[in-house]
């Protein structure tokens, strides 16, 4: 290929999204900012951040395919340069064996930072030659104009900044490889080198001139071993040698990082030491393993001269990390460590642990950095996020001795204790008549209401903690107060003389409403009245609904009944307290929950006429709240109201703690709930269908019980809360959902004690929390006037914290036309089981603009493969069944056309996600003003359903011999099996001929899915859609499954046999004509033995589509509607009683299948108890699932053996345009394997497309469906003879050509993609290669580029224009990177 033609095609690397591997501060002049800038190295790029505004200023590509490992900075030479509006910094950036010197120029447009924009330029100064070993550290020696480079062979290279040459290479006599090296000093005279060897030792040495020693005694104390082997070099006419100062021994693990103090007298080192610590308490003894330690070595000498040097001593050892420690930083008063356990810890110099930040995910925190001047702590790690905290320190000696790190708000936090007046005298032993506190409630930062068991309600004024003013408001008829709820005064509905309205529920079932007003010195009771709401001991809750005001009050009982009481406004405004004149409240309605569990929280919206409730067992229920009911003025209109819809197990079996209506649209309402399972769940209620659907959820892993969510005053979204409060173990926690940081932690003993909290506009600076312990109320209060919240901040968005195994572009034709600049959406699956959606926009700074967590696989099982279904195909049939049971049912998305995203992985977990088409919703929302947010928000997914293997009671599962297909695809045996024959088969065959059954071991099943591919079919004769999914498992099985939408029913359709080895790659082809008359479905698989197999799925798919018309979803128990979280949220237990058991027994006997069920239970040992109702296992009502059922087998259409010499890692298929006759459909398949080769295969398909009706077999098919149980849901097999329902087709496949490039990459090929014109591949050599497919069906390399993604595992590409001149390529592994491919025509247009 000519050089000019080769240069006309160009691969250009884009931004990298992955681990942060280097950090460095850029100090700014006080005239510009009090906070420094931050340099961060990620991949081959440098990112420059303004810490104060959390804004990305600029990005620079510094290497090609080499990751940035470290950054060293030299400040301006003079103070005048530093204090000017512009400053120049010399920056050394190193990675692997390469170093580059840059001039970093920071300037501000105007002298005033408030009105000027910062600008940063990076110019290349010098490119150092490659070294023979990796570079571990770089240090500028300003006095000598040298750059010292520490190498992994325990040597130091000296680069002359003036002559741009290596002038010296000094090698230590300890010739060994190093894990780490750190240098300190600004000249050769004081330069110290600390080398962490592979022998768990630290060697401290320096460079000295070779001259006669001035003191023989020093030579005896500090001999240089093997001086003859020391490398001797010459600088300015003087020879330098390495001189050992000390060997530090004490670590028992690899030394990963070291840090010098600013004066060079202290050295800190961290390693993966393992230490067992025994902890004893009064109750039990337990042993903890700490896998990381930090040691501080202190030098006895205060001078850095060689003559005055004394040996280092290990003065302090820090244990606490549960995994390896990756980085450390040390100042004169504080020590920072960051480790693999995703924690960043701050320690005092006395060894006390001061703070812990656990806000990263994944493999750990790689780098930490601390600036003593601004007290900024920066941490960054594998999850790509950079988090900034501000720590406040004092310079007094007393503070340094206590640890040197004290929160500046700690002195302003008030911690005090109070006790109710009548409880002060009885703090000793108590009896049944003793008084104790039942409820406490904050209404403001200085107002606390206290209710007791003797019916007293107190008002405590806390302005002065030393002199608390108590006011006894009233006593409720000597009955203990069970519950209270308070409406605060900041409602416009209230009159000016009202402060709070308190609703009290007591043990006798009475409700008391008290109206309070401000007095001269104490609050006064304006009025109070009571009425009987429930029987004795049946009133458990009183609830004000903030949106309805003080005219409506709800009460709840233990049986799930909610009563609505209407309070006359005249009663509230009357000054008379005589409640015997007339009733002041009357019963308006009773709402009965079908779950019959206690209602814990409510919310209502009168304009939408709905009421939502959450109960104690994690369920939510929706009731109508009509306008006619709300305006009624007498109790004669009292109604018993049933629910509109409900959602079982919204929070598993854990209580719903709060519920909110967050947004209202024209056709639906969005709902947010929190629960005791540590989750925040989001739901959507469709007004027309009266259906509630699950939208998504967020797990706050630091909080086990979330009590509430709320927003700060300066939050961008005042509706959805950005703070969560709750409990974990014995601590009260406030969690910042935006920055993923813990802002408050108060030990309180847990959530079972009475407690209350209150927050102001800035929750970090304005918060109150009170709890009861030993009959004393403990109050923690911080309430200071605070401005805008600056820290903590997130500078770089969070992404996957572990390796990415699969990715795919979300290709939507409509959105591709709307989005400019070729914006892309990419879905990725990770080792930690998470699935994320990221947006890439080349016109935005940094490229990556958003990352959304869609969800996680059950139990965090790794995601191995992911695929997106961008199109829905039509299926037509001659059968018109208008009376079938597959009626329309509202699903998660009310639109009929649902595009899906599928992810599979470990533990055989298959999860489906449905595309959210929220364009109509966003037109009315805040995103209308921001087009970029609008375009991205229109592409999102929500969880749809999850399929998992069934858990069997016995250790082996019996699978009968399935029906065999001949090579032509027809059935070898044509028999119709009715239900009686199935019964006889299960009773005789399985007992007499057990040798004909295949046993599958179910003990320690650790099989995982390796690949997935899928397509969607919509039946024109019904309003249902079927997603056909092919999954390949590591046990060398390939299964065709079907997901029936919108009912979320799973079916096993067919088993593809034989497969002698696992299949790591799958692709499918759907053949259709322009009129969509009939379809053909083919599968292509690549296995680990190097073979490629073609399968014809047409008959199995057609047969199932016919039988799906007769599925009756109303006969199935409600399917799984919420993802399993593994935290007690499995959908709730199914409570069984004798009545239920007898009913099920009668149902089985009436259906005539009792014998079959009992036989299966006895013969196979299956467990007969039912599973949770939200489990993915779905049973027909009145029937028992047959696990020993038959599978439809599909034989290969064509097998090509030994295509690769080893396993096939990747495979992609595409249609080739205009390469043959119009009657032929020509496709090409590109595959890559461990043999480093690429294989291009061309084949043609000749498909006879006809209507997929039953034809002559139609009567037999109908009889078969009516007389037999022809389907078994959720994991059971679809039993059907395909030839009974599908006309025979003559589908032919011919191989046209095969081309092979033996050494396409220098290592295993991990990803390949083609569109029939161009092909792209990626190998473990981190090189993307572009291949041109010519007219003769050969392919040759056109361009290549090295990416920054270590250990790449997946590749995908998308066409950005209709002319196929521009492509976007995404590569994933340890991170993700975009690469753009531009042809000559596209490059010419861009130049114009």
TrEMBL record:
Q: Give the SMART domains listed for this entry.
A: WD40
Gene Ontology process terms (BP) = tRNA methylation
**Annotated WD repeat ranges:** 128-169, 1082-1097
Q: Domain of life here? A: Eukaryota
Subcellular location as annotated: Cytoplasm
Q: Enumerate the InterPro entries for this protein.
A: tRNA_Anticodon_Mtase-Reg, WD40/YVTN_repeat-like_dom_sf, WD40_repeat_CS, WD40_repeat_dom_sf, WD40_rpt
Keywords, ordered alphabetically: Cytoplasm, Repeat, tRNA processing, WD repeat
Gene3D superfamilies noted in UniProt: YVTN repeat-like/Quinoprotein amine dehydrogenase
PROSITE patterns the record matches: WD_REPEATS_1, WD_REPEATS_2
Q: Name one GO cellular component term.
A: cytoplasm
Question: Which family does the UniProt entry place this protein in?
Answer: Belongs to the WD repeat WDR6 family.
**Protein name per UniProt:** WD domain, G-beta repeat
What organism is recorded for this protein? Answer: Musa troglodytarum (fe'i banana)
The organism's taxonomic lineage, starting at the top: Eukaryota, Viridiplantae, Streptophyta, Embryophyta, Tracheophyta
């Amino acid at each position: 290929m000519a050089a000019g033609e080769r240069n006309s095609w160009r691969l250009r690397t884009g931004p990298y999204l992955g681990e942060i591997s280097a950090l460095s501060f850029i100090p700014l002049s006080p005239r510009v900012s009090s906070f420094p800038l931050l340099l961060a190295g990620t991949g081959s790029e440098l990112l420059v951040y303004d810490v104060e505004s959390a804004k990305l200023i600029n990005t620079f590509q510094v290497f090609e395919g080499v990751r940035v490992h470290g950054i060293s900075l030299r400040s301006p030479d003079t103070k005048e340069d530093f204090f000017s509006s512009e400053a120049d910094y010399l920056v050394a950036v190193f990675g692997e064996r390469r170093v580059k010197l840059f001039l970093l120029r920071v300037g501000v447009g105007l002298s005033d930072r408030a009105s000027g924009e910062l600008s940063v330029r990076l110019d290349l100064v010098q490119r150092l030659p490659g070294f023979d070993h990796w570079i571990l550290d770089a240090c500028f020696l300003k006095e000598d104009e040298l750059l010292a480079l520490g190498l992994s062979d325990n040597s130091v290279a000296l680069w002359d900044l003036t002559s741009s040459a290596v002038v010296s290479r000094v090698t230590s006599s300890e010739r060994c490889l190093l894990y780490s090296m750190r240098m300190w000093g600004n000249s050769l005279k004081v330069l110290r080198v600390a080398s962490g060897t592979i022998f768990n030792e630290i060697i401290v040495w320096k460079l000295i001139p070779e001259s006669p020693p001035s003191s023989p005694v020093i030579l005896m104390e500090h001999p240089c071993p093997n001086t003859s082997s020391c490398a001797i070099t010459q600088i300015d006419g003087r020879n330098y040698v390495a001189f050992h100062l000390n060997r530090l021994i004490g670590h028992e693990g690899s030394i990963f990082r070291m840090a010098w103090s600013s004066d060079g007298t202290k050295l800190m080192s961290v390693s993966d030491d393992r230490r067992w610590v025994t902890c004893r308490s009064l109750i039990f003894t337990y042993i903890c393993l700490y896998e990381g330690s930090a040691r501080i070595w202190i030098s006895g000498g205060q001078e850095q001269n060689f003559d005055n040097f004394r040996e280092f001593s290990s003065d302090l050892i820090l244990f606490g990390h549960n995994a390896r420690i990756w980085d450390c930083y040390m100042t004169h008063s504080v020590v920072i460590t960051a480790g693999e356990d995703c924690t960043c810890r701050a320690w005092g110099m006395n060894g006390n642990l001061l703070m812990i930040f656990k806000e990263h995910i994944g493999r750990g925190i790689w780098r930490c950095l601390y600036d003593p001047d601004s007290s900024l702590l920066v941490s960054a790690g594998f999850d790509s996020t950079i988090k900034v905290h501000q720590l406040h320190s004092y310079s007094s000696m007393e503070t340094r001795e206590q640890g040197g790190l004290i929160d500046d708000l700690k002195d302003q936090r008030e911690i005090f204790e109070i006790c109710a007046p009548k409880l002060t005298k009885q703090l000793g032993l108590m009896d049944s008549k003793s008084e104790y506190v039942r409820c406490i409630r904050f209404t403001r930062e200085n107002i606390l209401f206290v209710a007791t068991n003797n019916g007293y309600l107190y008002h405590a004024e806390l302005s002065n903690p030393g002199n608390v003013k108590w006011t006894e408001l009233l006593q409720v008829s000597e009955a203990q107060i069970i519950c209270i709820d308070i409406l605060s005064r900041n409602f416009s509905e209230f009159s000016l003389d009202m402060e709070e309205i308190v609703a009290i529920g007591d043990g006798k079932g009475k409700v008391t409403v008290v109206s309070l007003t401000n007095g001269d010195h104490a609050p006064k009771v304006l009025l109070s009245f009571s009425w009987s709401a429930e029987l004795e001991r049946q009133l458990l809750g009183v609830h004000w609904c903030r949106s309805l005001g003080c005219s409506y009050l709800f009460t709840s009982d233990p049986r799930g009944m909610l009563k609505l009481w209407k309070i006359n406004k005249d009663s509230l405004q009357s000054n008379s307290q005589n409640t015997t004149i007339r009733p002041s409240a009357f019963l308006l309605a009773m709402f009965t929950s079908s779950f019959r569990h206690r209602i814990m929280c409510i919310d209502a919206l009168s304009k939408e006429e709905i009421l939502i409730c959450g109960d104690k067992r994690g369920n939510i229920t929706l009731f109508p709240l009509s306008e006619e009911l709300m305006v009624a003025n007498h109790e004669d209109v009292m109604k018993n109201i049933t629910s509109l819809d409900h959602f079982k197990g919204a929070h598993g079996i854990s209580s719903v703690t709060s519920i909110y209506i967050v947004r209202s649209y024209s056709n639906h309402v969005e709902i947010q709930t929190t629960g005791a399972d540590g989750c925040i769940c989001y739901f959507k209620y469709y007004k027309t269908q009266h259906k509630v659907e699950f939208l998504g959820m967020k797990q706050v892993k630091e909080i086990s019980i979330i009590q509430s969510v709320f927003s700060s005053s300066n939050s961008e979204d005042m509706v959805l809360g950005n703070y969560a409060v709750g409990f974990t173990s014995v601590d009260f926690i406030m969690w910042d959902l935006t920055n993923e940081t813990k802002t408050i932690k108060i030990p309180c003993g847990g959530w079972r004690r009475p407690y209350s909290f209150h927050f102001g506009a800035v929750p970090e600076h304005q918060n109150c929390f009170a709890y009861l312990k030993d009959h004393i109320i403990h109050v923690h209060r911080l309430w200071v006037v605070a401005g805008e919240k600056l820290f903590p901040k997130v500078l770089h968005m969070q992404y996957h914290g572990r390796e990415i195994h699969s990715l795919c572009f979300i290709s939507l034709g409509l959105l591709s036309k709307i989005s400019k600049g070729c914006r892309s959406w990419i879905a990725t699956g990770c080792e930690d089981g998470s699935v994320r959606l990221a947006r890439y926009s080349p016109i935005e700074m940094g490229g990556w603009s958003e990352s959304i967590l869609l969800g996680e696989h059950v139990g965090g099982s790794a995601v191995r493969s992911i695929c997106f279904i961008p199109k829905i195909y039509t299926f037509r049939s001659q059968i018109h069944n208008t009376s079938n049971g597959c009626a329309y049912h509202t699903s998660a998305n009310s639109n009929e056309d649902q595009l899906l995203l599928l992810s599979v992985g470990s533990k055989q977990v298959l999860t489906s996600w449905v595309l959210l088409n929220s364009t109509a919703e966003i037109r009315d929302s805040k995103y209308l003003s921001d087009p970029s947010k609008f375009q991205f928000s229109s592409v999102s997914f929500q969880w749809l359903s999850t399929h998992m293997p069934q858990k069997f009671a016995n250790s082996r599962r019996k699978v009968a011999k399935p029906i065999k297909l001949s090579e032509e695809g027809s059935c070898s045996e044509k028999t119709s099996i009715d239900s009686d024959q199935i019964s006889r088969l299960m009773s005789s065959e399985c007992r007499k001929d057990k040798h004909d059954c295949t046993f599958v071991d179910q003990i320690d099943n650790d099989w995982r899915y390796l690949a997935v591919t899928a397509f969607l079919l919509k039946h024109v004769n019904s309003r249902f859609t079927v997603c056909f999914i092919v999954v390949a498992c590591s046990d060398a099985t390939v299964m065709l499954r079907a997901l029936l939408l919108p009912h979320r029913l799973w079916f096993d359709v067919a088993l593809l046999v034989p497969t002698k080895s696992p299949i790591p790659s799958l692709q499918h082809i759907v053949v259709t004509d322009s009129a969509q008359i009939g379809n053909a479905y083919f599968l292509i698989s690549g296995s680990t033995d190097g073979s490629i197999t073609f399968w014809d799925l047409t008959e199995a798919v057609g047969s199932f589509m016919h039988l799906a018309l007769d599925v009756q979803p109303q006969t199935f128990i409600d399917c799984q509607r919420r993802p399993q979280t593994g935290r007690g949220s499995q959908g709730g237990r199914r409570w069984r009683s004798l009545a239920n058991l007898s009913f099920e027994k009668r149902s089985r006997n009436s259906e005539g299948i009792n014998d079959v069920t009992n036989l299966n239970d006895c013969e196979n040992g299956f467990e007969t108890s039912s599973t949770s109702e939200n489990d993915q296992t779905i049973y027909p009502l009145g029937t028992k699932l047959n696990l020993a059922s038959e599978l439809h087998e599909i034989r290969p259409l064509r097998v090509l053996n030994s295509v690769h010499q080893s396993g096939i890692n990747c495979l992609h298929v595409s249609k080739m345009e205009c390469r043959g006759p119009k009657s032929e459909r020509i496709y090409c398949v590109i595959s890559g394997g461990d043999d480093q080769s690429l294989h291009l295969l061309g084949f043609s398909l000749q498909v006879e497309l006809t209507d997929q009706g039953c034809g002559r077999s139609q009567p037999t098919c109908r009889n078969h469906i009516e007389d037999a149980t022809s389907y078994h849901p959720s994991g059971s097999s679809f039993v059907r003879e395909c030839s009974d329902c599908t006309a025979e087709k003559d589908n032919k496949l011919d191989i046209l050509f095969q081309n092979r490039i033996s050494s396409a990459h220098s290592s295993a090929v991990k990803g390949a993609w083609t569109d029939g014109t161009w092909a792209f591949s990626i190998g473990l050599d981190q090189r993307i290669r572009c291949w041109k497919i010519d007219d003769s069906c050969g392919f040759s390399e056109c361009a290549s580029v090295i990416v920054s993604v270590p250990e790449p595992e997946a590749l995908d590409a998308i066409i950005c224009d209709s002319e196929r001149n521009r492509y976007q390529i995404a590569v994933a592994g340890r991170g993700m990177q975009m690469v753009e491919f531009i042809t000559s025509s596209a490059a010419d247009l861009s130049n114009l």
